[in-house]
Design a protein that fits this description.
One of its GO terms (molecular function) is dioxygenase activity. With 316 residues, the protein is α+β, with helices and mostly antiparallel strands. It is built from five helices and 16 strands. Strands 2-3-4-1-13-16-15-14 form an eight-stranded mixed sheet. Strands 6-7-8-5-9-12-11-10 form an eight-stranded mixed sheet, with helices on one face.
Length: 316
């Protein structure tokens, strides 16, 4: 029987200034802005989607930028670090590049056999770049970052929790994840154990709860093939006592949400239909796209959004 969940679909964070957000993820990191829309639950706020050429599941980092938002704090009950996958010989390039733009970077670290570096964006969002020689995804570049060093997509995510047992049961019994290994207080899980499906739990029993605001993750979404498999996941979760939402239509995928026992908001999102349903692939992210129900209010919505532009020329 095929697994219902096959890895990470997307990760969504809260951000501050919208223009700085676009500049960092497209200019500094070189991700493609594949969709510029609104937060469907708060239509006066942008929702940006950054990813590979088409915004394929497993590559998409999304943000809700709130102008003037105070910075949050990392802590337990949160996804504290989002890890992206890069080529096995790319960390020296990225270390030099990040430092060129004044971004402090950690020394080279090693974890479960992979080398990595750690840093934060302008809001304090925790990011890791993990060198992987086995990730054959092509990545994306606007041309200002060499293709061989481009980000391929997610490597994985780190959840910081006060205890792991109930979350581990959720992952391994109901979400098609398996335990991979342990290094100190870090426990690793995966569907296949490859880039794009890794979830690490770091146990911090005495840790303080994180405060969610700019620079923190709002939720992590796991991928499932279609609406049929999503309903099967929903049924399994509900039968096992999890409080799961109804299916929500996010235009580019369908979603269900629930909170895992450690406090992190989980989503299960469909791979279908993708981001090319309302824009040509060559022009993804160029216009503000709205769901049908918001179109009658377009003029008012756009008037309330801070104008932004995409320009990576300062980040060569």
């Amino acid at each position: 029987m095929k697994p219902l969940i096959t890895g990470i679909h997307h990760i969504t964070a809260i951000a501050g200034n919208p223009q700085q957000n676009i500049d960092f993820y497209t200019g500094v990191l070189g991700l493609r802005l594949v969709k510029k829309t609104i937060n469907f639950d708060a239509p006066d706020v942008y929702h940006f989607y950054f990813g590979d050429e088409l915004g394929r599941p497993g590559t998409v980092f999304t943000t809700f930028p709130f102008t003037g938002a105070r910075k949050g704090t990392k802590g337990t009950g949160e996804l504290t670090y989002t890890a992206f996958s890069v080529g096995k010989d790319s960390l020296a390039y990225w270390t030099e590049r990040l430092r060129k733009f004044g971004i402090p970077v950690s020394d080279l670290q090693k974890r479960f056999g992979n080398e990595l570096i750690r840093f934060e964006d302008h809001d304090g969002m925790g990011i890791e770049l993990v060198a992987s020689g086995e990730d054959d995804r092509p990545g994306w570049t606007y041309g200002h970052i060499p293709a061989e060093h481009s980000i391929r997509g997610f490597f994985g995510a780190t959840l910081q929790l006060q205890s792991k047992e109930l979350t581990e049961q959720l992952l391994t019994r109901h979400m098609d994840y398996s335990f991979i290994g342990q290094e100190g207080d870090r426990f690793r899980y995966g569907t296949e154990g490859k880039a794009g499906d890794i979830v690490d739990i770091v146990v911090n029993e005495a840790g303080r709860r994180g405060v969610q605001s700019a620079g923190t993750v709002h939720h992590i979404a796991f991928r499932t093939a279609n609406e049929t498999t999503q309903l099967a996941v929903q049924e399994i979760l509900m039968q096992n006592g999890y409080m799961v939402t109804e299916v929500k239509d996010r235009n580019y995928f369908k979603s269900i949400y629930f909170r895992e026992p450690g406090g992190v908001l989980f989503e299960v999102a469909t791979d279908e239909p993708g981001f090319a349903i309302d824009e040509d692939e060559a022009h993804l992210g160029e216009l503000v796209k709205l769901p049908e129900w918001a179109e009658p209010s377009r003029e008012r919505i756009e008037k309330g959004l801070t104008p932004v532009k995409l320009d990576v020329s300062s980040y060569v």
